[in-house]
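tokens incoming
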């Protein structure tokens, strides 16, 4: 049996551990620096209200990948859930993402899909030429009324800067639907684990060939006792930030208990105006509408720059970040017995279904590999 070290017990590390363990060819140590498994998907029963709390922010499982959906359902039951977000703006509360209902409400119209598309196209400001920044891109695509109601203040809060300082590429596509579909996701399968995400990760890791060590921070050198390492932590931290820190936005939460059954009537409401400093409020009992609790638990979410001791959440991926990642990536490619996978090690925003898919693919490449371990694939971003 070869000895494998997996750094990190999020979905990336747990799926990789499970697949290698199931092949019965490896013994696996999973080292996790936090005092719990499941990484940012960690859930727990809030001791005060009994509500299932998504500790690092709300997580809705969604995918159109049947292999991933069938796989994850082996490790825990999912309850049906469709994410329908609302947006509070200076002119009222609307269905979000912007859809036909939103457009008709905002402009007091009764458009059909074709009329709405034509109307929004005509709202776009055409006089500016090639958009030079986020604001110009939004005005070109959507016009001032939609931009100022839904995007301007929200973007300022989320990014902590004037939208004119952000590249146009941040708003890649037209964020509008011309039908009444208010499902936040377009995925075929969607749900919330009935017993929470941590229960699923515990089941993934529950195998005689896997040992999990919590409160155990990996630093370079620990790999000496192992035949191979899969690292799912931040790639810049792996190299001691030798070339600088990759840019991330992070979020923090203000916890509230509401002494009543329902605080806001929905799981997630975005605050798109500047009257409040938070970007959204999530009320976690709405993720489990089949459960009954006399009180409610909700969180105000604030966005900020990532400091040294914060958990990195959203890669900023600005041009200088891409250059810096390129430097770390070329170092990673030279590693002899370490592969990098997951959202932090490959500096990408990835949903849960993406990291599960990539971990499954990389695990099977590893198990079925031919040739020298030194030539084995180093980064899951090149899958
Ligand atoms: C606020 C927020 C909301 C999200 N909502 C959704 C959603 O609704 N749906 C969805 O599909 N996805 C969502 N995501 C994305 C989801 O969280 C990620 O896809 C998933 O967590 C990635 O898993 P991972 O294992 O790659 O990373 P992580 O979950 O971050 O796991 C990495 C683990 O490595 C550990 N670690 C790091 N460095 C070390 C070290 N040196 N030594 C030991 N351990 C280490 C960390 O403690 C962590 O446990 C959301 C993300 C955020 C931030």
């Amino acid at each position: 049996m070869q000895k494998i070290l997996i750094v990190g017990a999020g979905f990336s590390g747990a799926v990789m551990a499970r697949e290698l363990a199931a092949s019965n060819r490896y013994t696996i140590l999973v080292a996790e620096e936090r005092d719990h498994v499941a990484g940012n998907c960690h859930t727990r029963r809030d001791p005060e209200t009994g509500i299932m709390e998504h500790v690092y922010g709300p997580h809705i499982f969604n995918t159109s990948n049947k292999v991933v959906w069938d796989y994850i359902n082996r490790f825990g039951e999912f309850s049906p859930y469709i994410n329908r977000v609302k947006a509070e703006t200076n002119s009222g509360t609307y269905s979000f993402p912007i859809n036909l209902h939103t457009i008709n409400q905002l402009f007091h119209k009764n458009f059909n899909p074709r009329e709405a598309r034509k109307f929004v196209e005509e709202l776009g400001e055409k006089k500016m030429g090639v958009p030079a920044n986020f604001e110009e891109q939004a005005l070109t695509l959507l016009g001032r009324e939609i931009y100022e109601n839904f995007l301007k203040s929200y973007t300022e809060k989320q990014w902590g800067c004037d939208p004119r300082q952000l590249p146009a590429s941040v708003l890649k596509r037209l964020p509008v639907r011309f039908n009444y579909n208010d499902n936040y996701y377009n995925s075929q399968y969607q749900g919330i684990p009935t017993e929470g995400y941590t229960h699923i990760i515990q089941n993934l890791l529950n195998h005689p060939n896997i040992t999990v060590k919590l409160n155990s921070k990996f630093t370079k050198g620990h790999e000496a006792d192992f035949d191979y390492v899969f690292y799912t932590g931040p790639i810049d931290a792996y190299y001691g930030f030798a070339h600088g820190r990759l840019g991330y936005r992070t979020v923090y939460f203000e916890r509230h208990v509401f002494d009543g059954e329902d605080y806001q009537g929905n799981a997630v409401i975005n605050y798109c105006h500047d009257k409040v400093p938070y970007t959204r409020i999530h009320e976690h009992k709405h993720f489990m509408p089949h459960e009954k609790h006399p009180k409610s638990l909700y969180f105000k979410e604030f966005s900020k720059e990532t400091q040294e001791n914060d958990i990195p959440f959203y890669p900023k991926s600005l041009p200088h970040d891409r250059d810096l990642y390129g430097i770390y990536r070329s170092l990673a490619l030279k590693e002899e017995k370490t592969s990098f996978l997951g959202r932090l090690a490959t500096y990408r925003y990835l949903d849960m279904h993406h990291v599960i898919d990539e971990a499954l693919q990389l695990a099977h490449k590893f198990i079925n590999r031919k040739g020298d371990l030194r030539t084995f694939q180093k980064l899951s971003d090149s899958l």
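note: Residues 7-13, 31-34, 39-41, 57, 59-61, 217-218, 232-233, 251, 313, 342-344, 350-353, 355 surround flavin-adenine dinucleotide (CB under 6 Å).
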